[in-house]
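Now produce a polypeptide, keeping tokens residue-aligned:
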Amino acid sequence: MPMSWEMLYAERAHTMKNSEIREFFQLTEQPDVISFAGGFPSPDCFPREFIAEALQKLVLEEGAAALQYGPTEGNWELRRYLAEKMSLEGASCSPENILITNGSQQGLDLIGKVLLNPGDRVIVEEPGYVGGLGAFNNYQAAILPVAVDGKGLCTDLLEKELHSLRNQGKSVKLAYTVPNFQNPTGVTLSLERRRHLLELAGKYNFSIAEDNPYGELCFEGGQLPSLKTLDTEGRVIYLGSFSKTFIPGIRVGWIGAERCLVEKIAAAKQATDLCSNTLGQHLVEHFTRRQSINRHTRRLSTYYRGKRDLMISRMKEHFPAGVNWTVPRGGFFIWVTFPAHINSRDLLLKALEKKRVAYVDGGGFFVNGSGKNTARFSYSEASEEEIREGIARLGELFAEEFGGTPTKGKDRVAAEGR
């Protein structure tokens, strides 16, 4: 008799689903397709020569440590660097407050594993990052979406939700936010709302997971203080990553949190992978020690700003009236809103078939099936020529599908990212 695995799954496994967006990447990443789908850094930004020289040096001179298992908490020198970095930014921190993870995505999973029981309520942004939605869903959390506008998470709506829950004798355990150049919308949580969110966390006694992979890729206006910097009660769990500012393939991220929580998360991590990529950690530490990472991120910001500006200008030139978009101050993403009657998934299938161009339809970033007329465009990986050609092709398709002509030079901002 064939094995029936369905009968053996744990209860939580029945709620686990593959990301629709990840599944769709198989179509969008075909060689002849111009893709604005993946939120990947540009390979042109990888410091290949430095990496080649550094790896040889690490293997020959530090191989006994760099090629061996490491501590679950991570490389001490890297943790010390990160603690100093966060302290300089205003979040008092020591190496004991830092845990190295396999990218910030593992951090989200470990937070869910340590903090969430089935049915615990988690506040998420809507639209919001699918990796966060998936991580918390896997631990059977009750996901409560709160809308995002041009200033980020709408904390006034969150306050009403929290007040209503309290009146019902219910509470929230965790709020999850990507405050800087959010995935997928590109908007930034305002300073006023950052303070309001922390105020609400204190009043209603919940924790905050602050996911900040894009914060250092700031194009203009300066970086706002992190929630961790503003936190005076130890409520914020900070997640950082070197995937966007160095290279993603080594999967090095980190958690910054209260020491007692870091110790508990380390215990959970021991049962997951024992330790993160040791060679990758040594490579990152080598990079931060031998190179000016601040100079490197400034170069990245200039590079990605040029791509953002190009995509925005091409949208102005080619997209018909009725199509609107955000103007992010940093990061990788532009959020596009089509006329209300347009289904962006259907439009995407036509874009692939007729124009060989891809983006990500917005429905997967919503909890309750809304957002069908929205889409995420990423300018980070595509070349300048691909941006020019791809946006022009899409403009032709959009005009064919729902009429209208481009309103050249006119700003059509769906949710102001400033």
In short: The first strand starts at residue 34 and ends at 35. The chain has two domains: 5-45+295-401, 48-290. The chain has a mean pLDDT of 93.
